[in-house]
Write a structure and sequence with these properties.
6-stranded antiparallel β-sheet, 33 strands
Amino acid sequence: PRRMIRVGKNVPLAPEQTYWYRLHCGGDAATGSFTTRSAQTAPRSLTLTHTPAAAGVATSVIEFGFAYDASSDAILNWRATQPVRCLKDTPCQIAVTVDPGEILYYRVIDRDQNGAEIARTSVTALVDPATAGLPQPKFTLDSFVNSAGYRGGGVAPCEIVAILGTGLGPETLTFPDAGPVSDSIAGVRVLFDRQPAPLLYAWNQQLSAIAPARIASQTLTEVQVEYANRRSDPVMVPVFVAQPGIYTADSSGRGQGAILNEDGSRNGPDNPAPRGSVVQIFATSGGPMSPACEEGKIAADRQDLQLPVTAAVGGVPAQVEYAGSSPQSIMGLLQINVRIPEAAPAGAAVPLAITIAGVPAQDGVTLAVR
């Protein structure tokens, strides 16, 4: 038999958090997870589609409420919608006003032209009416990309990725309530092999997450986006050792790089770096580090990349002074310190090239040199 189990009565639950549980019943056990959401109080209009099967139907109504007695098959304290014209085998839509956060119980009653009942459906329970009607999240392998260079087709451990698609999250850009990352933002989760990964932000058409370090031993990882308890179809993503991307000033993946000069100021056409100075270049997806990356945690100190890193400024090979985590930033964000060669050309947009283990970052990134 079905029973409702109430959690959080003695242990308060925080909103926008994922909780794992284990249930025991006799000798059986089951595990699972759920994500809490902030309480919502404003009523919401919900439209349900119904297709009558009985002959002679003229109108239909929805009988609904927020409590149900299974022994008598009764919805307690039920209310009814206004009759809506419905015909046999023809879909019709019926609007009902619901209270977000409550379980909605409803059934559809079909009536003839005189208002007499002809048929009724069984009772349906809608666990989260506030999110009913939201589309399934959708994305593809091609839209699963490096968040810096927007290169798709695969992922490396601890890479900061961007996922582009539809129905991925809320209509407004949303960030974690506390700290730079969270396993859940506004009901959004990104699952790698069914385990949540740290999220940086979420929006209906784009979100960003950090790939887990544990996928390093795999050739493929299964990725899904979950929003409001709806999951996308799984996408199998190849796992690479590294696929570097350089962050740019306008987040387009091209043009002026997100680069700091030796004095800590932003590099740009109006603030070029002198030859012989060291600039800080920010990137992601550089492969294994020592000490090992723990995705989403703050890098307290330097963590050196273990793969060879090369750089060139204006086609001139440049010395890499440091390549690894960016101290006091989230693990996944890389910092590559490069000394600008004395022979490098001067200009407002000098080409910058970075490779890691022979894999080049995206073309089209520049820096200013004087």
